[in-house]
Amino acid sequence: MDRMLTAEQQALFEHELLAHIAGALRTTIDWTLRTQDASSRLPSLRFIAQSFVRHLDHILDLEERDGYMPGVDSRRHADLRQRILQLRRDHDYFRAELAASVERLESAASSDYLTIGEVCHAMLAVLDGINEHNQHELEIIELARERDQRDQLLGML
Ligand SMILES: [Fe+2]
């Protein structure tokens, strides 16, 4: 139980940190989209985008390895299994989309504002997708927890 709480506290901290980096990424994107000369902004954008991707990767790995994914017992919550599989597929989608964005940013010339603009919009779409994904995750975690507590109260464990 203690270990569970520690894992939850760590997950909370990691998500808070990710939200801060996402805020910095949105600010940098906004700042980049306001100009057609991205030469002074591209290095910051690359740096923040890479930081975000690195930290997101860390969180996705934690969720898949130690987090709610193995934590939600698929035998007792068989009906949640499809939803968890979809969330797992979301992770792969976020990884692939962001890896492609970072790669495009790395190779873009600072004068190529069309590419830079496209990448900015693609990253904003992924950020929105992650918010939606996190809402679904929370719903599943709360649902599984409520059922576990109810079953425990009824002495069904
Ligand atoms: Fe997730």
List keywords for this structure.
157 residues
Question: Would you write up a description of this structure?
Answer:
The protein is mainly alpha-helical. It has one domain (2-153). The protein has five helices and no strands. Helix 1 runs antiparallel to helix 5 and helix 2 (42-65) runs antiparallel to helix 4 (81-107). The mean pLDDT is 89.
Largest sheet: none
The strand count comes to 0
Helix content: over 70%
Low-confidence stretches: none
Tell me the domain tally.
Answer: 1
Our estimate of the beta-strand percent is under 5%
Radius of gyration from the alpha-carbon trace, in angstroms: 19 Å
Overall average residue pLDDT: 89
The secondary-structure element order is: HHHHH
Number of helices: 5
What is the oligomer described by this structure?
A: single chain
SSE blueprint and pairings:
Blueprint (H helix, E strand, L loop, with lengths): L1 H32 L8 H24 L2 H4 L9 H27 L5 H41 L4
Helix pairs in contact: 1-2, 1-5, 2-4, 4-5
The structure holds fe (ii) ion.
The site of fe (ii) ion (FE2) has 6 residues, from helix 2, helix 4 and helix 5.
At a glance:
The protein is an all-alpha fold and 157 residues long. It has helices at residues 2-33, 42-65, 68-71, 81-107, 113-153. The protein has one domain (2-153).
